[in-house]
Amino acid sequence: MKILKDVPILRRILELGYTMFLVIILSVVVGLILAYPVMLLWNFVFGELYSLSVLQAWSLNILAGILFGQKASGNQK
């Protein structure tokens, strides 16, 4: 990979892409792990009416984060 040594900006872009890829993969894995308790709780409460898969629970976590997430404002104290 002599070209990476000759073009430092290319090496920096490649490192940044690799870091972004790792962050995305880690976020997906953590999100799926956190969705599992939501699935268990949902199936315990509403199991006879509706049951959820892990991916549906993950989607529910994302939706709840969008709807009920903290809003950032300029004058927080």
Note down, in words, how this protein is organized.
With 77 residues, the protein is mainly α. The chain has a domain at 25-55. The chain is 77% helix and 0% strand. The chain has helices at 2-6, 8-46, 54-68. It is elongated.
Summary tags:
single chain; 77 residues; 3 helices; 0% strand; elongated
How many runs of DSSP E, i.e. beta strands? Answer: 0
Class of secondary structure makeup: mainly alpha
Mean pLDDT: 84
Fraction in beta strands: under 5%
Oligomeric assembly: single chain
- What is the terminal-to-terminal distance? 51 Å
Please tell me how large the radius of gyration is: 20 Å
Please outline the major beta sheet.
Answer: none
Brief rundown of the structure:
The protein is mainly alpha-helical. The protein is 77% helix and 0% strand. The protein is elongated, with a radius of gyration of 20 Å.
What's the structural blueprint in terms of helices and strands?
Blueprint: H1 2-6, H2 8-46, H3 54-68
Helix pairs in contact: 2-3
